[in-house]
Amino acid sequence: MYCLQWLLPVLLIPKPLNPALWFNHSMFMGFYLLSFLLERKPCTICALVFLAALFLICYSCWGNCFLYHCGGAPLPDSAHDPSIVGT
């Protein structure tokens, strides 16, 4: 279970507020996970626990899934603030 300490914090990284950065964020996270899986070779139990947690987060559409943006999920209120998005 040592490898979970490197995988679980990935689920806590928030998605950027600016929709233009969502693709870059998902590509970065995908390449990070791919390189982690190839380099560290986590145990099967750790990989299954992580994939189950990722599936549950993405399936529930809480808005923190880095793979895609749920169509019906509204943007946070601060996403419409020009002082934040316009930077």
Automatic annotation (TrEMBL):
Keywords on record: Membrane, Transmembrane, Transmembrane helix
PANTHER family referenced in this protein's UniProt entry, alphabetically: BLADDER CANCER 10 KD PROTEIN HOMOLOG, BLADDER CANCER-ASSOCIATED PROTEIN
Name assigned to this protein: Bladder cancer-associated protein
Annotated GO CC locations: membrane
Keyword 4Fe-4S: no
InterPro entries associated with the record: BCALP
Sequence similarity: Belongs to the BLCAP family.
The protein's role, per its UniProt record: Acts as a tumor suppressor; induces growth arrest at G(1)/S checkpoint and apoptosis via RB1-dependent and p53/TP53- and NF-kappa-B-independent mechanisms. Modulates expression of genes involved in the regulation of proliferation, cell cycle and apoptosis.
Source superkingdom: Eukaryota
Pfam family name, one: BC10
Alphabetical list of SMART domains matching this protein: BC10
Protein source organism: Scyliorhinus torazame (Cloudy catshark)
Compartments (UniProt record): Membrane
Main location: membrane
Segments passing through the bilayer: 20-38, 45-69
